[in-house]
Specification:
- By secondary structure, the chain is of the alpha+beta class.
- It contains 2 helices and 6 strands.
- A 6-stranded mixed sheet has the order 2-1-6-5-4-3, covered by helices on one side.
């Protein structure tokens, strides 16, 4: 484990949760896949910038916060797990992986989120 003190994901989640523009954190060749489970139904959101815009438009971010329980970084890869809350109430459990480019911008995101664990982190 190296580089956790300069980790990308805590900065990313803080910006996302505060409603800041996060697109400046993404590389030009950005791709993503999010496996999202809610109310017992799973859905995948995947693609590039256009699909990301669609994903972000359907989000309900009001009062939502990401909390990291575990964070690992090796080279250009970072992995975090944790939970989300909405207005301080448990919401979901997540695992999030990113691959960064040489400038520290995110090239790829792979993440999964579920309500099945009632927001309990791994």
């Amino acid at each position: 484990m190296t580089g956790v003190e300069t980790a990308f994901l805590p900065r990313y989640f803080a910006a996302l949760d505060d409603g800041e523009d996060i697109l400046s954190l993404f590389a030009r060749d950005f791709r993503f896949s999010l496996l999202w489970s809610s109310e017992g139904q799973a859905r995948e959101f995947a693609g590039g910038f256009d699909e990301w815009a669609g994903y972000m438009a359907q989000r309900e971010p009001d009062g939502q916060r990401h909390h990291i329980s575990h964070l690992l970084r090796e080279g250009d890869t970072e992995l975090a797990s944790g939970w989300t809350t909405r207005f301080d109430e448990p919401l979901g459990t997540f695992t999030f992986a990113v691959e960064l480019d040489a400038d520290g911008l995110v090239r790829r995101i792979f993440a999964a989120r579920t309500e099945a664990f009632s927001g309990t982190p791994f």
